[in-house]
Amino acid sequence: MSAFLDAALVFLVLLSSSALGFFIRPILSERHRSREVIDFVQLVVAMLVTFAALVLGLLTSSVKGSFDKVGNQLRGLAIEIIQLDRSLREWGAETEPIRELLRTYTASAIATTWTEEPKPAGNYYPAVVPTNPASRLESSVLEDMLARIERGIRQLEPRDPMHRRLQGTSITQFELLMQTRWRLVEEAGSSISTPFLVILVFWLGVVFASFGLNAPRSLLSYTTIALGAVSVASAIFLILDLDTPFDGIFSVSSEPMRHALTYLGG
Predict the structure, then answer these.
(1) Where in the chain is the domain with CATH 1.20.120?
(2) What confidence tens digit (pLDDT) does each residue in 29-56 have?
(3) Longest CA–CA separation in the chain, Å
(4) What angle do CA 258, 259, 264 make, to 5 degrees?
(5) What CATH number has the domain spanning 66-189+250-264?
(6) d(CA 266, CA 264)
(7) How many CA atoms are closer than 13 Å to the CA of 187, on its beta-carbon side?
């Protein structure tokens, strides 16, 4: 919703800039409306259009790359959960409480991260947990589950070389899981700073003001400028929405985690 509101604000700014150009043109003196002045203004505007197009293209490429990276890391997290469960399963019945806690963590992570999707079946997990305002992936409840899983693994008492190997493998897998999780937490938030976005919108506002200054007074001109504003605002919306991979219309899929939960027996 925040990305949509920001895009709507950009749309209004661009239309207002065009309207300002429309209103200013009649009050300009003839000297300021000469062909030389208009050509010079168009030259400067062409430079701004180039800058804005370059920045928008780089931003789109950057956020799409970051979005895909988060999706790959999420798939990696699901794989690490499955591998950890397999190692614990090989140990035997002693690890059942740890495996059950791992299953509870996975189900709760799905329910609290993808809040607008159907929750996993069952009532064995907390579906609502307190989260950090900056990232819904951070939660003291989920972190406590992971801490209990780690303690449970480290407190296992190997009976033979095979169980010693399994304990070492499980500890390594858990550490990899935690590293992937913290990378997801760090990359889940927005990376686009507000001042940077304001400067970009300022450039676009100047461009659209020049459109209003030079456009013919006709319905087709007004419609074309409005469509241009919609197109630019939709590009801003796409960038902002992709920049928050766990929120909005474009969000990373929960399928890898749901497949992991199915493997765990959830």
Answers:
(1) 66-189+250-264
(2) 676 667 777 777 778 888 888 888 999 9
(3) 95
(4) 95
(5) 1.20.120
(6) 6
(7) 22
